[in-house]
Amino acid sequence: MIEALHLGSMLPAALGACCVAGGADRRSPLAWLGMLAMLAAMADTMLMPRPLLAPIVWAAVLVLVALATAVQGRLRAVPPAGSPTHPSRTMTAHRSLQAVLMAGLIATAGSHHSGSAVGGAHASHGLPVLLVLGVAALAFAAASAVVALRRPLPLLPRAEAALGAAATTLMALPLLA
Questions:
Q1: pLDDT of 117-155, one tens digit each?
Q2: pLDDT at 161 over 80
Q3: What is the DSSP-derived secondary structure letter of residue 85?
Q4: What is the gyration radius of the CA atoms in the chain, in angstroms?
């Protein structure tokens, strides 16, 4: 069941990458790098019997990409007061938050599968981490739903937000079970 949820989380993540390909950020190397790093981390840690990189390494890569994406988004020209927020700015924040949350989920899921302190014999020590990640995943899903339902945004960023929420929620469900 857990493997089915993990595999199922890769479909919305892959479709979200397709939204980047057709969206306003299609020329942004960081947008691509973030989506590809997330997909690679999910595939390596969840599908491979022996991951190529440790989950904590993937988590570090995702956090670094999230920070770079956030800094790049912050350095973009600020829109004039009263003008609507450009979809790229909204999705930059969304992608950064998703990458940080996914980094935590991958690190926790990796230790959960390997039987270390978070998910092994001493699982009670990891309970606060799992609870925080579960609550964060639900909050992210709710915030993503708000972004996805915003009328001023074009269809592709709205779809990417909804797919990001689905991928994150599906990754979080096995940790909460």
A1: 444 444 455 678 888 888 899 899 999 998 888 777 888
A2: yes
A3: P
A4: 16
SS3 157: helix
Work out the angle between the directed axes of helices 87-114 and 155-176 (0-180°, nearest 10): 20
Q: Supply angle C-alpha 35, 22, 19, rounded to 5.
A: 45
Burial classification of residue 15, based on how many CB atoms lie within 10 Å of its CB (0-12 exposed, 13-18 middle, 19 or more buried):
middle
User: What integer pLDDT is reported at residue 88 of this predicted model?
Assistant: 73
pTM value > 0.90: no
Query: Burial of 4 by CB count in 10 Å (0-12 exposed, 13-18 middle, 19+ buried)?
Result: exposed
For residues 17 and 30, what is the distance between their CA atoms, to the nearest angstrom?
12
CA distance 127 to 141: 21
Place of tokens 């739903």: 145
Say which DSSP state 166 is in. H
Angle (nearest 5°) at CA 47 between 33 and 177: 105
Distance (Å, rounded) from C-alpha 109 to C-alpha 136?
15
**Size (the chain), residues:** 177
